[in-house]
């Protein structure tokens, strides 16, 4: 005899127990610690500054950068620079943005990775129509820069870490300067 039939034969006194177990099972993912409490998600201010892109092979057209934090769905955690004309194989964006970011602290008291993605695009006109190509992308782990940024601030230096990043998924050797 199948299990379902045995339960039905046993009578109604089993049904509330079965229902309670089902309800408990449905609530279990919320109660079993899959969400991280706010005490383990400290809030940081991200001061994003995109300075320039150099070594662009083409001399004409415009360029802009789309960025986002894949770990967040908030509208403030995505954006783009203005379209800036390319001059002398270089683009000066001068883009700044300050946003709050929550990083997660794991059980060993270290910050878990939190990446920010940059997609660098170029627009140019070809035969009277506009073309858009992706020059490359960059992924940066923000958790690696928290300690270095705080140390620079304590030493009286300008807050933040400024670095040049070689574009990934790119056929050109352009570098992006970000702080």
Automatic annotation (TrEMBL):
For this protein, the record's Pfam families field holds: NT-C2 (PF10358)
Domain C2 NT-type spans what residues?
34-179
Q: Which residues form the signal peptide?
A: none
PROSITE patterns (alphabetical): C2_NT (PS51840)
Q: Which InterPro entries match?
A: EEIG1/2-like (IPR039931), NT-C2 (IPR019448)
What name is this protein filed under?
A: C2 NT-type domain-containing protein
Lineage, broadest ranks: Eukaryota, Fungi, Dikarya, Ascomycota, Pezizomycotina
């Amino acid at each position: 005899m199948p299990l379902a039939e045995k339960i039905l034969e046993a009578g109604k006194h089993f049904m509330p127990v079965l229902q309670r177990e089902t309800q408990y099972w449905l609530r279990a993912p919320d109660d079993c610690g899959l969400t991280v409490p706010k005490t383990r998600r400290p809030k940081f201010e991200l001061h994003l500054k995109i300075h320039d892109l150099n070594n662009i092979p083409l001399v004409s057209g415009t360029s802009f950068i789309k960025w986002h934090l894949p770990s967040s769905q908030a509208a403030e955690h995505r954006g783009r620079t203005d379209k800036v004309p390319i001059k002398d194989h270089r683009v000066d964006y001068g883009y700044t943005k300050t946003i709050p970011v929550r990083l997660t602290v794991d059980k060993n008291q270290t910050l878990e990775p939190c990446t920010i993605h940059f997609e660098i695009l170029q627009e140019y006109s070809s035969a009277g129509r506009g073309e858009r190509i992706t020059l490359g992308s960059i992924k940066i782990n923000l958790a690696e820069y928290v300690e270095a940024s705080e140390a620079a601030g304590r030493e009286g230096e300008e807050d933040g870490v400024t670095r040049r990043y070689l574009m990934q998924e790119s056929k050109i050797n352009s570098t992006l300067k970000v702080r």
